[in-house]
Inverse folding.
């Protein structure tokens, strides 16, 4: 044990890259990444639920615009969407004089908007697929009980659809975490941004990027285990008895 | 062709780079995926562990971080190896990594991990009776792979494959960050120079959508091809 700690102190003393300062960069980056991902996911979820219900509507003029939106946002790279919002927001007439500019001037909010729009598109399709897969028997049973459409949606369709969507939504959360790395392109100091800064300062690609890769790996596993736990609890009624 | 303030031709060249990059990385990813899938299914403990380590790590880290690591670290890593070879054996070689090749290898390496998972699931979905029948006919392993395993595996793999391809296509946009002149980079440069971002970004988005739509159509046809002999059976059963 003593040997180990001696070896560890030696290692720390030898390295000139991972000082308190650079670790501070990584720490701030971690906070920014988690903020960005968490906020866009929560806002995205709130918007995606009604959209996914409307996506399954029988009326064409409700269904088609949503389909078009999800098709465009899922068919183009997030980087393009980010560029459009980040570079494009300046050109909205009168935006620079309005109070909104104080918020939009920082790159954080354009990125948040881009990420939210992107995740809404994917989440809408995931939920729409799950709603569509609701078994006919459940709906017939609800109808036989005389439930209204909204009550049926609230009590029967949505709860079972959410459970079914859980694995796919977990993938989307991980996808979002990984996609958030491109925030560093518009000068946001997220985890990847911190790594790029450290790389640029010390010209040490392995140290800078391997460290951040390990951090992302930890985050990914944390999300993975969270969803596995959720699935275990929520899908308990589907498990075989033995 | 639309001139787009003189950027039109460059944008088209960039689009070609994007398509070439995507197709070549797809080939690398499929080969790596098949190799890794066989490694993960092999009886050898070591091969299995190596395959699992590769797919777990690659799928747990953002594409951009891996790209930055391989792009910036790759050349240094290669130089270290060649230096060591020179010191040790006196072999003097200099390998300069071409940006395009580095992009292909990086994206191929990333998506090889995703392909491996797709192929592994698909191989396991092939009925073991089919393989037994092949063996009973006295087929060699290679013939069996070509005639039985591969065609039947593709039926199960295609949905995953098409998914991976769509993600791969969008991932190629990231090479613009690292310095390859694909259409995203041309569009970003043009937007900065002319202060008209939408003029350039919207055509690029449309090209991406076009490629995606065409690939969707191709995959639908492929799916039909590999489903031959299964569709009717389902109809009879119902």
């Amino acid at each position: 044990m003593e040997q180990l700690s001696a070896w560890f102190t030696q290692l720390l003393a030898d390295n000139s890259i991972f000082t308190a300062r650079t670790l501070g960069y990584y720490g701030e980056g971690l906070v920014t990444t988690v903020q960005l991902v968490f906020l866009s996911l929560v806002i995205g979820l709130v918007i995606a639920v009604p959209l996914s219900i409307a996506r399954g509507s029988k009326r064409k003029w409700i269904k088609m615009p949503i389909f078009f939106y999800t098709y465009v946002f899922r068919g183009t790279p997030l980087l393009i969407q980010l560029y459009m919002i980040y570079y494009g927001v300046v050109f909205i007439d009168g935006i620079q004089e309005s109070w909104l500019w104080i918020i939009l001037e920082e790159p954080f909010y354009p990125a948040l908007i881009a990420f939210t729009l992107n995740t809404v598109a994917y989440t809408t399709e995931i939920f729409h697929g799950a709603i569509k897969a609701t078994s006919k028997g459940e709906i017939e049973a609800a109808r036989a009980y005389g439930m209204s459409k909204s009550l049926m949606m609230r009590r029967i369709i949505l709860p079972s659809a959410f459970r079914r969507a859980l694995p796919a939504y977990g993938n989307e959360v991980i996808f979002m975490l990984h996609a958030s790395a491109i925030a560093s392109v518009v000068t946001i100091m997220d985890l990847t941004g911190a790594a790029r800064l450290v790389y640029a300062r010390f010209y040490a690609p392995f140290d800078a990027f391997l460290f951040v890769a390990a951090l992302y790996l930890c985050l990914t596993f944390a999300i993975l285990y969270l969803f596995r736990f959720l699935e275990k609890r929520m899908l308990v009624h589907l498990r075989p008895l033995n | 062709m639309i001139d787009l303030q003189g950027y039109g031709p460059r944008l088209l060249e960039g689009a070609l780079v994007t398509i070439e990059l995507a197709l070549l990385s797809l080939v690398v990813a499929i080969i790596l995926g098949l190799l890794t899938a066989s490694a993960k299914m092999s009886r050898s403990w070591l091969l299995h562990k190596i395959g699992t380590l590769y797919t777990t790590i690659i799928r747990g880290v953002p594409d951009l971080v891996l790209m930055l690591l391989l792009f910036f670290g790759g050349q240094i890593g290669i130089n270290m190896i060649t230096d060591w070879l020179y010191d040790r054996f006196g072999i003097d070689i200099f390998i300069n990594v071409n940006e395009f090749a580095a992009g292909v290898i990086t994206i191929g390496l990333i998506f090889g991990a995703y392909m491996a998972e797709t192929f592994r699931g698909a191989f396991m979905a092939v009925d073991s009776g089919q393989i037994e029948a092949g063996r009973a006919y006295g087929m060699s392993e290679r013939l069996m792979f070509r005639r039985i395993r591969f065609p039947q595996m593709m039926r199960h793999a295609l949905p995953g494959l098409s998914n991976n391809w769509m993600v791969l296509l969008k991932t190629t946009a990231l090479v613009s960050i690292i310095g390859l002149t694909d259409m995203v980079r041309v569009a970003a440069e043009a937007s900065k120079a002319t202060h008209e971002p939408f003029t350039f970004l919207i055509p690029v988005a449309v090209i991406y959508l076009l490629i995606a739509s065409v690939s969707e159509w191709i995959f639908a046809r492929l799916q039909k091809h590999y489903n031959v002999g299964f569709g009717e059976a389902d109809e009879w059963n119902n």
